Amino acid sequence: MKIKAPKSVPVGGHNYKVEQDPSLALTKGNRGQCDNAKETITIDSNAIPSHKTTILLHEVLEAIKFVWFDNDLDHHTLDTISEGIFQFLGSLGIEIEWDD
User: pTM for the whole thing?
Assistant: First the structure.
């Protein structure tokens, strides 16, 4: 089942806007970014769809970490959890459809 990529994601009482940026990797050096002050998640629009999904999951976990865990989870743990969630969703036949 395909679902459309979200335009925003609720985290706690906050609503994070989801954006794509073709220059993110070039200007910031990473393929995803969570700006908690602006409540914005940015994803490299040049990434392939499966990578966009894992990037989104990772950045949502970054927001969750900020809101509920006082930034007390390391980056590797977030990578591992996001890949696990991606695999689980895939096993259920759930795929995020990205508008490019």
Answer: 0.92
